[in-house]
Amino acid sequence: MTRTFLALLARDLRVLRSTFPVFVIRVVMQPLLLVFVFTYVFPKIGQAIGGSGSTTSFSTVLIAGVVALSIIFQGIQGVALNLVQEFGYTKEIEDRVLAPLPIWAVAAEKVVAAALQGLVAAAVVFPVAAFVPATPVHLSVDWPVLVTLAPLAALCAGALGLAIGTLIPPQQVALIFAIIVLPLTFLGAIYYPWQALHPIAWLQYLVLVNPLVYMSEGFRAALTAGVPHMALLWVYLAVVGFGALLWAIGLWGFRRRVLS
Amino acid sequence: MTPAEEVVRAEQLTKVFRTPGPRRAGRPPGAGRPDGPSSDGLVAVDHLDLQVRRGEIFGLLGPNGAGKSTTIGILTTRVLPTSGRALVAGVDVVRSPARVKRHIGVVSQTNTLDRSLSVSDNLYYHGRYFGLGRREAARRAEELLERFRLADRANAPVLSLSGGMAQRLMVARAVLHEPEVLFLDEPTAGLDPQSRLALWDLVRDLHARGQTVLLTTHYMEEADQLCERLAIIDHGRILAQDTPAALKRTLGDRSEIRLALAGDAQQAASLVKGVLASGDAEVVALDGTVRCFVRDAGSVLPTVVAEASRAGTVTNVTVEEPTLESVFIRLTGRDLRE
Protein backbone atom coordinates (compact mmCIF):
# COMPACT_ATOMS: atom_id res chain seq x y z
CA MET A 1 0.00 0.00 0.00
CA THR A 2 2.83 2.38 0.87
CA ARG A 3 4.40 1.73 -2.52
CA THR A 4 1.17 2.54 -4.29
CA PHE A 5 0.71 5.68 -2.20
CA LEU A 6 4.23 6.86 -3.02
CA ALA A 7 3.70 6.05 -6.70
CA LEU A 8 0.57 8.22 -6.74
CA LEU A 9 2.56 10.99 -5.10
CA ALA A 10 5.37 10.52 -7.60
CA ARG A 11 2.83 10.89 -10.40
CA ASP A 12 1.58 14.18 -8.98
CA LEU A 13 5.12 15.48 -8.60
CA ARG A 14 5.90 14.38 -12.16
CA VAL A 15 2.94 16.41 -13.41
CA LEU A 16 4.05 19.35 -11.29
CA ARG A 17 7.57 19.13 -12.76
CA SER A 18 6.31 19.08 -16.31
CA THR A 19 4.16 22.13 -15.67
CA PHE A 20 6.75 23.82 -13.49
CA PRO A 21 6.59 27.29 -15.06
CA VAL A 22 2.84 27.35 -14.52
CA PHE A 23 3.31 26.20 -10.94
CA VAL A 24 5.87 28.94 -10.30
CA ILE A 25 3.58 31.63 -11.66
CA ARG A 26 0.75 30.22 -9.59
CA VAL A 27 2.69 30.34 -6.32
CA VAL A 28 4.59 33.58 -6.92
CA MET A 29 1.95 35.91 -8.35
CA GLN A 30 -0.31 36.20 -5.37
CA PRO A 31 2.27 36.94 -2.65
CA LEU A 32 4.16 39.13 -5.08
CA LEU A 33 1.15 41.31 -5.88
CA LEU A 34 -0.06 41.46 -2.30
CA VAL A 35 3.31 42.43 -0.94
CA PHE A 36 4.00 44.78 -3.82
CA VAL A 37 0.74 46.72 -3.58
CA PHE A 38 0.39 46.81 0.17
CA THR A 39 3.98 47.24 1.23
CA TYR A 40 5.56 49.05 -1.70
CA VAL A 41 2.92 51.00 -3.58
CA PHE A 42 0.82 52.12 -0.64
CA PRO A 43 3.68 53.49 1.47
CA LYS A 44 5.15 55.23 -1.61
CA ILE A 45 1.90 57.00 -2.44
CA GLY A 46 1.27 57.85 1.17
CA GLN A 47 -1.78 55.68 1.59
CA ALA A 48 -2.32 55.10 5.31
CA ILE A 49 -2.95 51.45 5.98
CA GLY A 50 -2.56 49.06 8.84
CA GLY A 51 -4.57 50.81 11.54
CA SER A 52 -3.65 53.66 13.81
CA GLY A 53 -1.19 53.52 16.65
CA SER A 54 0.51 50.47 15.26
CA THR A 55 4.02 50.03 16.57
CA THR A 56 5.17 47.58 13.95
CA SER A 57 5.18 48.19 10.24
CA PHE A 58 2.29 46.95 8.20
CA SER A 59 4.69 44.90 6.13
CA THR A 60 5.55 42.86 9.19
CA VAL A 61 1.90 42.31 10.07
CA LEU A 62 1.04 41.33 6.55
CA ILE A 63 3.78 38.78 5.98
CA ALA A 64 2.33 36.09 8.28
CA GLY A 65 -1.04 36.49 6.62
CA VAL A 66 0.47 36.11 3.16
CA VAL A 67 2.19 32.87 4.19
CA ALA A 68 -1.12 31.48 5.48
CA LEU A 69 -2.97 32.65 2.38
CA SER A 70 -0.43 31.04 0.04
CA ILE A 71 -0.87 27.72 1.80
CA ILE A 72 -4.66 27.88 1.66
CA PHE A 73 -4.58 28.80 -2.02
CA GLN A 74 -2.52 25.75 -2.92
CA GLY A 75 -5.07 23.59 -1.14
CA ILE A 76 -7.81 25.06 -3.29
CA GLN A 77 -5.86 25.24 -6.55
CA GLY A 78 -3.89 22.04 -6.13
CA VAL A 79 -6.76 19.80 -5.10
CA ALA A 80 -10.16 21.41 -5.36
CA LEU A 81 -9.98 22.71 -8.92
CA ASN A 82 -8.38 19.48 -10.19
CA LEU A 83 -10.94 17.30 -8.48
CA VAL A 84 -13.88 19.32 -9.70
CA GLN A 85 -12.56 18.84 -13.21
CA GLU A 86 -11.73 15.15 -12.82
CA PHE A 87 -15.06 14.27 -11.27
CA GLY A 88 -17.06 16.44 -13.59
CA TYR A 89 -15.58 16.11 -17.04
CA THR A 90 -12.48 14.06 -17.49
CA LYS A 91 -13.19 11.05 -15.22
CA GLU A 92 -9.42 10.53 -15.02
CA ILE A 93 -9.72 9.97 -11.30
CA GLU A 94 -11.14 6.50 -12.02
CA ASP A 95 -7.70 5.35 -13.01
CA ARG A 96 -6.30 6.22 -9.57
CA VAL A 97 -9.37 4.94 -7.75
CA LEU A 98 -8.63 1.56 -9.33
CA ALA A 99 -5.08 1.56 -7.97
CA PRO A 100 -4.72 -1.20 -5.39
CA LEU A 101 -5.25 0.72 -2.18
CA PRO A 102 -8.23 1.76 -0.08
CA ILE A 103 -10.22 4.77 -1.23
CA TRP A 104 -9.30 6.79 1.84
CA ALA A 105 -5.65 6.44 0.88
CA VAL A 106 -6.32 7.76 -2.64
CA ALA A 107 -7.98 10.80 -1.06
CA ALA A 108 -5.17 11.17 1.48
CA GLU A 109 -2.62 11.23 -1.32
CA LYS A 110 -4.40 14.22 -2.87
CA VAL A 111 -4.27 16.03 0.46
CA VAL A 112 -0.56 15.29 0.93
CA ALA A 113 0.26 16.41 -2.62
CA ALA A 114 -1.55 19.71 -2.01
CA ALA A 115 0.21 20.12 1.33
CA LEU A 116 3.61 19.77 -0.34
CA GLN A 117 2.65 22.42 -2.88
CA GLY A 118 1.44 24.60 -0.02
CA LEU A 119 4.79 24.35 1.73
CA VAL A 120 6.64 25.35 -1.44
CA ALA A 121 4.26 28.27 -1.88
CA ALA A 122 4.84 29.35 1.72
CA ALA A 123 8.61 29.23 1.24
CA VAL A 124 8.32 31.46 -1.83
CA VAL A 125 6.85 34.24 0.32
CA PHE A 126 10.13 34.83 2.17
CA PRO A 127 12.31 35.95 -0.73
CA VAL A 128 9.41 38.08 -1.98
CA ALA A 129 9.13 39.70 1.45
CA ALA A 130 12.86 40.26 1.61
CA PHE A 131 13.13 42.20 -1.64
CA VAL A 132 9.87 43.91 -2.46
CA PRO A 133 8.59 46.01 0.47
CA ALA A 134 9.48 49.67 0.78
CA THR A 135 9.38 49.49 4.56
CA PRO A 136 11.48 46.79 6.19
CA VAL A 137 9.96 43.53 7.33
CA HIS A 138 11.15 42.47 10.76
CA LEU A 139 11.06 38.73 11.10
CA SER A 140 11.78 36.97 14.32
CA VAL A 141 11.41 33.31 13.61
CA ASP A 142 10.22 30.89 16.25
CA TRP A 143 11.46 27.72 14.54
CA PRO A 144 9.68 25.08 16.63
CA VAL A 145 6.36 26.78 15.93
CA LEU A 146 7.13 27.35 12.26
CA VAL A 147 8.20 23.77 11.48
CA THR A 148 5.25 22.25 13.28
CA LEU A 149 2.58 24.71 12.25
CA ALA A 150 3.45 24.93 8.55
CA PRO A 151 2.88 21.20 7.78
CA LEU A 152 -0.29 21.13 9.88
CA ALA A 153 -1.64 24.21 8.14
CA ALA A 154 -0.70 22.77 4.75
CA LEU A 155 -2.52 19.49 5.48
CA CYS A 156 -5.54 21.43 6.75
CA ALA A 157 -5.54 23.41 3.49
CA GLY A 158 -5.33 20.17 1.49
CA ALA A 159 -8.30 18.80 3.42
CA LEU A 160 -10.19 22.02 2.68
CA GLY A 161 -9.38 21.52 -1.00
CA LEU A 162 -10.62 17.93 -0.85
CA ALA A 163 -13.87 18.98 0.80
CA ILE A 164 -14.48 21.75 -1.73
CA GLY A 165 -13.45 19.63 -4.70
CA THR A 166 -15.80 16.79 -3.87
CA LEU A 167 -18.79 18.89 -2.83
CA ILE A 168 -18.96 21.58 -5.51
CA PRO A 169 -20.57 20.42 -8.76
CA PRO A 170 -18.50 21.27 -11.84
CA GLN A 171 -21.11 23.64 -13.23
CA GLN A 172 -20.64 25.80 -10.16
CA VAL A 173 -16.89 26.21 -10.06
CA ALA A 174 -17.34 29.98 -9.95
CA LEU A 175 -19.04 29.53 -6.60
CA ILE A 176 -15.74 28.42 -5.11
CA PHE A 177 -14.48 31.96 -5.53
CA ALA A 178 -17.63 33.77 -4.51
CA ILE A 179 -18.59 31.86 -1.41
CA ILE A 180 -15.33 30.35 -0.26
CA VAL A 181 -12.17 32.05 -1.49
CA LEU A 182 -13.27 35.65 -1.11
CA PRO A 183 -14.75 35.48 2.43
CA LEU A 184 -11.94 33.20 3.50
CA THR A 185 -9.25 35.62 2.39
CA PHE A 186 -10.81 38.98 3.18
CA LEU A 187 -11.88 37.82 6.64
CA GLY A 188 -8.87 35.66 7.36
CA ALA A 189 -6.88 38.01 9.60
CA ILE A 190 -4.37 38.49 6.82
CA TYR A 191 -4.20 42.27 6.78
CA TYR A 192 -4.64 42.77 10.51
CA PRO A 193 -4.14 40.78 13.69
CA TRP A 194 -7.33 39.14 14.87
CA GLN A 195 -7.18 41.14 18.09
CA ALA A 196 -7.44 44.36 16.09
CA LEU A 197 -11.02 43.43 15.21
CA HIS A 198 -11.96 44.19 18.81
CA PRO A 199 -13.99 47.32 17.96
CA ILE A 200 -16.31 45.14 15.84
CA ALA A 201 -17.07 42.45 18.38
CA TRP A 202 -19.62 40.54 16.27
CA LEU A 203 -17.18 40.25 13.42
CA GLN A 204 -14.36 39.28 15.71
CA TYR A 205 -16.33 36.25 16.83
CA LEU A 206 -17.87 35.49 13.46
CA VAL A 207 -14.48 35.10 11.75
CA LEU A 208 -13.58 32.35 14.21
CA VAL A 209 -15.31 29.90 11.85
CA ASN A 210 -12.59 30.69 9.31
CA PRO A 211 -9.59 28.35 9.59
CA LEU A 212 -7.38 30.90 7.85
CA VAL A 213 -7.70 33.17 10.91
CA TYR A 214 -5.88 30.62 13.06
CA MET A 215 -3.23 30.02 10.44
CA SER A 216 -2.51 33.73 10.05
CA GLU A 217 -2.38 34.16 13.79
CA GLY A 218 -0.16 31.13 14.16
CA PHE A 219 2.30 32.35 11.56
CA ARG A 220 2.27 35.75 13.26
CA ALA A 221 3.45 33.96 16.39
CA ALA A 222 5.98 31.96 14.40
CA LEU A 223 7.44 34.80 12.36
CA THR A 224 7.09 38.10 14.15
CA ALA A 225 7.72 39.61 17.54
CA GLY A 226 5.72 42.48 18.97
CA VAL A 227 2.61 41.84 16.87
CA PRO A 228 -0.31 40.61 18.95
CA HIS A 229 -1.52 37.11 18.18
CA MET A 230 -3.94 34.53 19.45
CA ALA A 231 -2.74 32.05 22.09
CA LEU A 232 -0.87 29.21 20.34
CA LEU A 233 -2.94 26.56 22.09
CA TRP A 234 -6.04 27.80 20.25
CA VAL A 235 -4.13 28.03 17.02
CA TYR A 236 -2.97 24.40 17.14
CA LEU A 237 -6.32 23.12 18.38
CA ALA A 238 -8.18 24.96 15.65
CA VAL A 239 -5.83 23.98 12.81
CA VAL A 240 -5.91 20.31 13.81
CA GLY A 241 -9.65 20.42 14.55
CA PHE A 242 -10.56 22.13 11.28
CA GLY A 243 -8.20 19.79 9.46
CA ALA A 244 -9.90 16.71 10.93
CA LEU A 245 -13.37 18.06 10.24
CA LEU A 246 -12.57 19.00 6.65
CA TRP A 247 -10.84 15.65 6.09
CA ALA A 248 -13.96 13.84 7.32
CA ILE A 249 -16.18 15.93 5.06
CA GLY A 250 -13.79 15.56 2.13
CA LEU A 251 -13.49 11.81 2.53
CA TRP A 252 -17.26 11.47 2.75
CA GLY A 253 -17.60 13.51 -0.44
CA PHE A 254 -14.84 11.57 -2.17
CA ARG A 255 -16.42 8.20 -1.38
CA ARG A 256 -19.77 9.51 -2.49
CA ARG A 257 -18.26 10.53 -5.82
CA VAL A 258 -16.30 7.38 -6.58
CA LEU A 259 -18.66 4.74 -5.17
CA SER A 260 -22.29 4.25 -6.00
CA MET B 1 -16.33 -26.83 -12.40
CA THR B 2 -13.80 -26.82 -9.58
CA PRO B 3 -13.46 -23.54 -7.70
CA ALA B 4 -9.88 -23.19 -8.87
CA GLU B 5 -10.99 -22.72 -12.46
CA GLU B 6 -13.36 -19.96 -11.51
CA VAL B 7 -12.07 -16.39 -11.62
CA VAL B 8 -15.30 -14.47 -11.15
CA ARG B 9 -18.29 -15.60 -9.17
CA ALA B 10 -21.48 -13.66 -8.43
CA GLU B 11 -24.23 -15.06 -6.25
CA GLN B 12 -27.67 -13.48 -6.13
CA LEU B 13 -26.07 -10.13 -6.84
CA THR B 14 -28.54 -7.25 -6.57
CA LYS B 15 -28.17 -3.51 -6.89
CA VAL B 16 -30.97 -1.07 -6.22
CA PHE B 17 -30.17 2.58 -6.88
CA ARG B 18 -31.91 4.81 -4.37
CA THR B 19 -32.30 7.63 -6.84
CA PRO B 20 -32.13 7.14 -10.56
CA GLY B 21 -28.61 8.07 -11.53
CA PRO B 22 -27.67 9.68 -14.81
CA ARG B 23 -27.58 7.38 -17.86
CA ARG B 24 -29.05 4.53 -15.89
CA ALA B 25 -32.16 2.78 -16.93
CA GLY B 26 -34.05 0.35 -14.78
CA ARG B 27 -37.49 -0.62 -13.74
CA PRO B 28 -39.70 -0.25 -10.69
CA PRO B 29 -38.55 -2.34 -7.72
CA GLY B 30 -39.71 -5.89 -7.31
CA ALA B 31 -41.66 -5.81 -10.57
CA GLY B 32 -42.93 -9.26 -11.27
CA ARG B 33 -41.12 -11.02 -8.48
CA PRO B 34 -42.49 -11.45 -5.00
CA ASP B 35 -39.05 -11.67 -3.39
CA GLY B 36 -37.75 -8.54 -5.11
CA PRO B 37 -36.43 -5.65 -3.05
CA SER B 38 -39.21 -3.53 -1.66
CA SER B 39 -37.25 -0.33 -1.09
CA ASP B 40 -37.69 2.69 -3.32
CA GLY B 41 -35.36 2.95 -6.24
CA LEU B 42 -34.36 1.34 -9.48
CA VAL B 43 -33.32 -2.28 -9.69
CA ALA B 44 -30.27 -2.30 -11.95
CA VAL B 45 -29.06 -5.80 -11.12
CA ASP B 46 -31.55 -8.39 -9.92
CA HIS B 47 -30.40 -11.60 -8.20
CA LEU B 48 -27.73 -12.25 -10.76
CA ASP B 49 -25.63 -15.43 -10.71
CA LEU B 50 -22.50 -15.59 -12.78
CA GLN B 51 -19.34 -17.66 -13.10
CA VAL B 52 -16.44 -16.85 -15.33
CA ARG B 53 -13.81 -19.54 -15.84
CA ARG B 54 -10.11 -19.02 -16.06
CA GLY B 55 -8.90 -18.30 -19.56
CA GLU B 56 -12.26 -17.73 -21.23
CA ILE B 57 -13.81 -14.73 -22.91
CA PHE B 58 -17.17 -14.29 -21.28
CA GLY B 59 -19.70 -11.78 -22.56
CA LEU B 60 -22.65 -9.98 -21.06
CA LEU B 61 -24.96 -9.19 -23.97
CA GLY B 62 -27.92 -6.90 -23.49
CA PRO B 63 -29.37 -3.53 -24.49
CA ASN B 64 -28.37 -0.24 -22.87
CA GLY B 65 -29.68 -0.08 -19.34
CA ALA B 66 -29.81 -3.86 -18.93
CA GLY B 67 -27.51 -3.71 -15.90
CA LYS B 68 -24.28 -4.75 -17.62
CA SER B 69 -22.22 -1.78 -16.51
CA THR B 70 -23.60 -1.91 -13.00
CA THR B 71 -22.59 -5.57 -12.79
CA ILE B 72 -19.08 -4.69 -13.98
CA GLY B 73 -19.12 -1.77 -11.51
CA ILE B 74 -19.79 -4.14 -8.62
CA LEU B 75 -17.16 -6.64 -9.73
CA THR B 76 -14.58 -3.85 -10.05
CA THR B 77 -15.38 -2.41 -6.58
CA ARG B 78 -16.84 0.89 -7.75
CA VAL B 79 -20.47 0.03 -7.09
CA LEU B 80 -21.59 -1.39 -3.75
CA PRO B 81 -24.15 -4.19 -4.14
CA THR B 82 -27.41 -3.93 -2.22
CA SER B 83 -27.33 -7.66 -1.54
CA GLY B 84 -25.67 -10.81 -2.74
CA ARG B 85 -22.01 -11.67 -2.98
CA ALA B 86 -19.28 -11.38 -5.55
CA LEU B 87 -15.81 -12.90 -5.58
CA VAL B 88 -13.02 -12.00 -7.96
CA ALA B 89 -9.94 -14.23 -7.87
CA GLY B 90 -11.48 -15.66 -4.71
CA VAL B 91 -11.57 -12.27 -2.94
CA ASP B 92 -14.81 -10.67 -1.77
CA VAL B 93 -15.32 -7.35 -3.60
CA VAL B 94 -17.13 -5.66 -0.72
CA ARG B 95 -14.88 -6.85 2.10
CA SER B 96 -11.50 -6.40 0.46
CA PRO B 97 -11.81 -3.96 -2.44
CA ALA B 98 -8.14 -2.98 -2.34
CA ARG B 99 -7.07 -6.63 -2.74
CA VAL B 100 -9.55 -7.17 -5.56
CA LYS B 101 -8.14 -4.15 -7.40
CA ARG B 102 -4.75 -5.86 -7.50
CA HIS B 103 -6.26 -8.74 -9.52
CA ILE B 104 -8.34 -6.82 -12.05
CA GLY B 105 -7.73 -4.72 -15.13
CA VAL B 106 -10.54 -2.38 -16.13
CA VAL B 107 -11.37 -0.60 -19.35
CA SER B 108 -14.42 1.53 -18.65
CA GLN B 109 -16.73 3.17 -21.15
CA THR B 110 -15.27 6.64 -20.74
CA ASN B 111 -11.73 7.61 -21.57
CA THR B 112 -10.00 7.63 -18.18
CA LEU B 113 -6.46 8.08 -19.47
CA ASP B 114 -4.34 10.46 -17.42
CA ARG B 115 -4.36 13.57 -19.56
CA SER B 116 -1.50 15.16 -17.67
CA LEU B 117 0.86 12.36 -18.66
CA SER B 118 2.29 11.19 -21.97
CA VAL B 119 1.25 7.92 -23.61
CA SER B 120 4.17 5.94 -22.20
CA ASP B 121 3.93 7.59 -18.76
CA ASN B 122 0.31 6.47 -18.55
CA LEU B 123 1.61 2.92 -18.67
CA TYR B 124 4.72 3.54 -16.56
CA TYR B 125 2.87 5.15 -13.65
CA HIS B 126 0.13 2.56 -13.80
CA GLY B 127 2.81 -0.08 -13.30
CA ARG B 128 4.22 1.90 -10.38
CA TYR B 129 0.74 2.10 -8.77
CA PHE B 130 0.70 -1.69 -8.89
CA GLY B 131 4.00 -1.97 -7.08
CA LEU B 132 6.36 -2.55 -10.02
CA GLY B 133 9.87 -1.23 -9.72
CA ARG B 134 11.05 1.59 -12.00
CA ARG B 135 12.91 -0.61 -14.42
CA GLU B 136 10.19 -3.27 -14.63
CA ALA B 137 7.43 -0.67 -15.14
CA ALA B 138 9.43 0.99 -17.91
CA ARG B 139 10.20 -2.37 -19.55
CA ARG B 140 6.56 -3.47 -19.59
CA ALA B 141 5.40 -0.05 -20.81
CA GLU B 142 7.79 -0.27 -23.72
CA GLU B 143 6.82 -3.83 -24.55
CA LEU B 144 3.10 -3.06 -24.50
CA LEU B 145 3.49 0.06 -26.63
CA GLU B 146 5.19 -2.13 -29.19
CA ARG B 147 2.59 -4.87 -29.01
CA PHE B 148 -0.34 -2.46 -29.16
CA ARG B 149 1.21 -0.51 -32.04
CA LEU B 150 1.57 2.71 -30.08
CA ALA B 151 5.36 2.86 -29.94
CA ASP B 152 5.61 5.79 -32.35
CA ARG B 153 3.29 7.78 -30.08
CA ALA B 154 5.13 7.01 -26.86
CA ASN B 155 5.87 10.63 -25.99
CA ALA B 156 2.69 12.16 -27.39
CA PRO B 157 0.09 13.65 -25.08
CA VAL B 158 -2.87 11.29 -24.71
CA LEU B 159 -5.25 13.96 -25.96
CA SER B 160 -3.66 13.70 -29.40
CA LEU B 161 -4.66 10.04 -29.79
CA SER B 162 -7.50 8.94 -32.04
CA GLY B 163 -10.43 7.07 -30.48
CA GLY B 164 -9.06 3.70 -31.55
CA MET B 165 -5.56 4.45 -30.26
CA ALA B 166 -6.88 5.75 -26.94
CA GLN B 167 -8.89 2.57 -26.54
CA ARG B 168 -5.84 0.43 -27.30
CA LEU B 169 -3.85 2.37 -24.72
CA MET B 170 -6.60 1.83 -22.14
CA VAL B 171 -6.46 -1.91 -22.81
CA ALA B 172 -2.65 -1.92 -22.65
CA ARG B 173 -2.80 -0.09 -19.32
CA ALA B 174 -5.40 -2.51 -17.99
CA VAL B 175 -3.26 -5.58 -18.70
CA LEU B 176 0.12 -4.10 -17.71
CA HIS B 177 -0.05 -5.46 -14.17
CA GLU B 178 -1.07 -8.91 -15.47
CA PRO B 179 -4.52 -9.04 -13.90
CA GLU B 180 -6.37 -12.30 -13.28
CA VAL B 181 -9.32 -10.94 -15.19
CA LEU B 182 -9.70 -8.10 -17.67
CA PHE B 183 -13.01 -6.21 -17.65
CA LEU B 184 -14.00 -4.51 -20.89
CA ASP B 185 -17.13 -2.40 -20.61
CA GLU B 186 -18.53 -1.83 -24.11
CA PRO B 187 -15.00 -1.84 -25.51
CA THR B 188 -15.90 -0.89 -29.06
CA ALA B 189 -18.81 1.50 -28.49
CA GLY B 190 -18.20 4.60 -30.56
CA LEU B 191 -15.28 3.13 -32.53
CA ASP B 192 -15.17 3.11 -36.31
CA PRO B 193 -15.48 -0.37 -37.93
CA GLN B 194 -11.77 -0.64 -38.63
CA SER B 195 -10.78 0.20 -35.06
CA ARG B 196 -13.37 -2.25 -33.82
CA LEU B 197 -11.83 -5.08 -35.83
CA ALA B 198 -8.37 -4.08 -34.60
CA LEU B 199 -9.59 -4.21 -31.02
CA TRP B 200 -11.18 -7.61 -31.53
CA ASP B 201 -7.80 -8.87 -32.78
CA LEU B 202 -6.12 -7.49 -29.67
CA VAL B 203 -8.62 -9.18 -27.39
CA ARG B 204 -8.17 -12.48 -29.26
CA ASP B 205 -4.42 -12.11 -28.90
CA LEU B 206 -4.74 -11.52 -25.14
CA HIS B 207 -7.01 -14.53 -24.93
CA ALA B 208 -4.46 -16.66 -26.76
CA ARG B 209 -1.96 -15.67 -24.07
CA GLY B 210 -4.33 -17.02 -21.44
CA GLN B 211 -6.01 -13.78 -20.34
CA THR B 212 -9.48 -14.19 -18.80
CA VAL B 213 -11.82 -11.52 -20.19
CA LEU B 214 -15.25 -10.39 -19.06
CA LEU B 215 -16.79 -7.98 -21.52
CA THR B 216 -20.12 -6.28 -21.97
CA THR B 217 -21.60 -5.38 -25.29
CA HIS B 218 -24.83 -4.58 -27.00
CA TYR B 219 -23.42 -5.55 -30.40
CA MET B 220 -24.47 -9.07 -31.17
CA GLU B 221 -21.69 -9.51 -33.75
CA GLU B 222 -19.17 -8.70 -31.07
CA ALA B 223 -20.68 -11.24 -28.69
CA ASP B 224 -20.87 -13.82 -31.46
CA GLN B 225 -17.36 -13.28 -32.82
CA LEU B 226 -15.45 -12.84 -29.59
CA CYS B 227 -17.09 -14.66 -26.71
CA GLU B 228 -16.76 -18.30 -25.80
CA ARG B 229 -19.67 -18.07 -23.41
CA LEU B 230 -22.39 -15.49 -23.13
CA ALA B 231 -25.03 -14.38 -20.70
CA ILE B 232 -28.01 -12.60 -22.21
CA ILE B 233 -29.04 -9.96 -19.71
CA ASP B 234 -32.09 -7.73 -19.53
CA HIS B 235 -33.58 -5.77 -16.64
CA GLY B 236 -30.68 -6.86 -14.47
CA ARG B 237 -31.44 -10.55 -14.88
CA ILE B 238 -29.72 -13.28 -16.84
CA LEU B 239 -32.19 -14.79 -19.27
CA ALA B 240 -29.92 -17.38 -20.85
CA GLN B 241 -26.31 -18.41 -20.51
CA ASP B 242 -24.33 -20.61 -22.90
CA THR B 243 -22.01 -20.62 -25.88
CA PRO B 244 -23.17 -18.44 -28.81
CA ALA B 245 -23.75 -21.56 -30.92
CA ALA B 246 -25.82 -23.27 -28.23
CA LEU B 247 -27.88 -20.12 -27.69
CA LYS B 248 -28.66 -19.95 -31.39
CA ARG B 249 -29.56 -23.63 -31.34
CA THR B 250 -32.36 -22.83 -28.87
CA LEU B 251 -34.21 -21.51 -31.92
CA GLY B 252 -33.93 -24.99 -33.40
CA ASP B 253 -33.85 -25.08 -37.17
CA ARG B 254 -36.09 -22.07 -37.36
CA SER B 255 -35.13 -18.97 -39.28
CA GLU B 256 -36.38 -15.45 -38.93
CA ILE B 257 -38.73 -13.79 -41.40
CA ARG B 258 -38.62 -10.04 -40.93
CA LEU B 259 -41.35 -7.90 -42.46
CA ALA B 260 -41.15 -4.13 -42.55
CA LEU B 261 -44.61 -2.68 -42.63
CA ALA B 262 -46.35 0.63 -43.25
CA GLY B 263 -49.29 -0.03 -40.99
CA ASP B 264 -50.17 -1.58 -37.66
CA ALA B 265 -47.42 -4.10 -36.88
CA GLN B 266 -49.24 -5.34 -33.80
CA GLN B 267 -52.30 -6.21 -35.82
CA ALA B 268 -50.21 -7.77 -38.59
CA ALA B 269 -48.44 -9.92 -36.00
CA SER B 270 -51.66 -11.29 -34.59
CA LEU B 271 -53.01 -11.97 -38.10
CA VAL B 272 -49.82 -13.86 -38.99
CA LYS B 273 -49.93 -15.75 -35.71
CA GLY B 274 -53.46 -16.85 -36.64
CA VAL B 275 -52.40 -18.51 -39.90
CA LEU B 276 -49.17 -20.09 -38.69
CA ALA B 277 -50.67 -23.25 -37.30
CA SER B 278 -47.37 -24.93 -36.58
CA GLY B 279 -46.77 -25.27 -32.82
CA ASP B 280 -43.28 -23.83 -32.52
CA ALA B 281 -43.72 -20.76 -34.71
CA GLU B 282 -43.34 -17.50 -32.82
CA VAL B 283 -44.37 -14.04 -33.94
CA VAL B 284 -43.30 -10.74 -32.40
CA ALA B 285 -44.18 -7.16 -33.38
CA LEU B 286 -41.26 -4.81 -32.90
CA ASP B 287 -40.66 -1.20 -34.00
CA GLY B 288 -43.06 -1.35 -36.94
CA THR B 289 -41.71 -4.74 -38.05
CA VAL B 290 -43.03 -8.26 -37.66
CA ARG B 291 -40.53 -10.99 -36.75
CA CYS B 292 -41.57 -14.60 -37.32
CA PHE B 293 -39.45 -17.49 -36.10
CA VAL B 294 -40.53 -20.43 -38.23
CA ARG B 295 -39.33 -23.70 -39.71
CA ASP B 296 -39.23 -23.95 -43.47
CA ALA B 297 -39.46 -20.20 -44.02
CA GLY B 298 -39.55 -20.57 -47.80
CA SER B 299 -42.86 -22.38 -47.93
CA VAL B 300 -44.75 -20.22 -45.40
CA LEU B 301 -43.37 -16.92 -46.70
CA PRO B 302 -46.18 -16.18 -49.21
CA THR B 303 -48.84 -16.84 -46.55
CA VAL B 304 -47.05 -14.65 -44.02
CA VAL B 305 -46.71 -11.76 -46.46
CA ALA B 306 -50.29 -12.07 -47.65
CA GLU B 307 -51.67 -12.12 -44.10
CA ALA B 308 -49.51 -9.19 -42.95
CA SER B 309 -50.61 -7.15 -45.99
CA ARG B 310 -54.12 -7.07 -44.55
CA ALA B 311 -52.82 -4.78 -41.78
CA GLY B 312 -50.76 -2.49 -44.04
CA THR B 313 -48.35 -2.35 -46.96
CA VAL B 314 -45.37 -4.68 -46.62
CA THR B 315 -42.34 -2.60 -47.64
CA ASN B 316 -39.52 -5.10 -47.13
CA VAL B 317 -39.05 -8.80 -46.45
CA THR B 318 -35.90 -10.58 -45.30
CA VAL B 319 -35.27 -14.16 -44.28
CA GLU B 320 -32.27 -14.79 -42.03
CA GLU B 321 -30.57 -17.61 -40.24
CA PRO B 322 -31.04 -17.21 -36.48
CA THR B 323 -28.65 -14.74 -34.87
CA LEU B 324 -28.04 -13.84 -31.24
CA GLU B 325 -30.35 -10.94 -31.83
CA SER B 326 -33.13 -13.36 -32.82
CA VAL B 327 -32.45 -15.17 -29.55
CA PHE B 328 -32.68 -11.91 -27.63
CA ILE B 329 -35.91 -10.86 -29.35
CA ARG B 330 -37.47 -14.23 -28.71
CA LEU B 331 -36.51 -14.03 -25.02
CA THR B 332 -37.59 -10.44 -24.41
CA GLY B 333 -39.86 -9.39 -27.23
CA ARG B 334 -37.50 -6.43 -27.61
CA ASP B 335 -34.59 -5.35 -29.70
CA LEU B 336 -30.96 -5.01 -28.61
CA ARG B 337 -30.82 -1.51 -30.04
CA GLU B 338 -33.39 -0.01 -27.71
UniProtKB/TrEMBL annotation, chain A:
Keywords linked to the UniProt accession: Cell membrane, Membrane, Transmembrane, Transmembrane helix, Transport
Key word Glycoprotein present: no
A Pfam family the protein falls into: ABC2_membrane
Alphabetized PROSITE patterns for the sequence: ABC_TM2
Keyword flag Chloroplast: no
Localization terms from the record: Cell membrane; Membrane
Transmembrane intervals: 20-42, 62-84, 111-131, 143-168, 175-194, 231-254
Membrane-topology annotation of the record: Multi-pass membrane protein
Primary location: membrane
Domain ABC transmembrane type-2 intervals: 22-257
The family this protein is said to belong to: Belongs to the ABC-2 integral membrane protein family.
Protein name as catalogued: Transport permease protein
